[in-house]
Design goal:
7 strands; globular; 7-stranded mixed β-sheet; alpha/beta
Length: 222
């Protein structure tokens, strides 16, 4: 418990020093809480990291798998140029309704296409529609389907596309090959696919902070 409190205090310090006060983002988190969405948004420091990675890549097209209330969506969409576009996929209609309201609040509704329904079905529809490749892809949805999402991410990529996966450490449970947790097994299968896939060069980094002990996978399509 003491360690977790230290992580939270350090996150708060970083936020105070490096992340300007943002009433819109705070209102988004408040709206998510009021709508009883699960409190699993990325932290402000992680949101800023997503934004910086999008800027570093110079991304004009972003795909997000897993919208929730749109908090991470807003961080990334703010980094897009005037002609940029973000497509985000959300299974739950209630979550999507809250996210759409949050995007309107942030003035980003015109840059973001929110698609509602099963993500695998939505990805197949995007392919059928002839969607162009994306520059940046953020995978943050149901973990048992992570390997499927990675395959689709690669299908929508080109050399230089950045693919980021969230929650890939799961408090260290990923080292347990006998874990009964389908989320852990989904992430382990995700790693196994990454290890075998010659089209992507990837690593994972462990993180601690206000969201506890977890981590990100970061890869680039080659």
């Amino acid at each position: 418990m003491q360690l977790n409190e230290t992580w939270k205090k350090v996150d708060r310090y970083i936020e105070q020093q490096l992340i300007p006060h943002d009433p819109d983002l705070e209102q988004v988190l408040a709206a998510n809480q009021q709508a009883a969405l699960p409190p699993i948004d990325v932290s402000p420091t992680q949101g800023k990291l997503l934004q910086l990675l999008v800027q570093m890549r110079g991304a004009k097209r972003i795909l997000e798998i897993g919208t929730l209330g749109g908090y991470s969506t807003i961080w990334m969409a703010r980094a897009l140029p005037a002609d940029g576009r973000l497509v985000t996929l959300e299974l739950d209609p209630h979550h999507a309704e809250v996210a759409q309201s949050n995007l309107l609040l942030a003035g980003l509704a015109s840059k973001v296409e929110l698609r509602v329904g099963d993500a695998l079905a939505q990805l197949a529809e995007l392919q059928a529609e002839g969607a162009e490749p994306f520059d940046f892809i953020f995978i943050d949805a149901d973990k048992p389907n992570n390997p499927h999402y990675l395959k689709w991410a690669l299908a929508f990529s080109r050399p230089g596309t950045v693919i980021l996966g969230d929650n890939v450490i799961r408090e260290g449970e990923i080292v347990r090959d006998d874990s009964p947790d389908a989320r852990v097994q989904g992430v382990r299968a995700f790693y196994e696919l990454l290890a075998q896939e010659p089209r992507i060069s990837a690593t994972a980094i462990q993180t601690v902070g206000s969201k506890g002990y977890d981590g990100f996978m970061l890869g680039v399509v080659i």
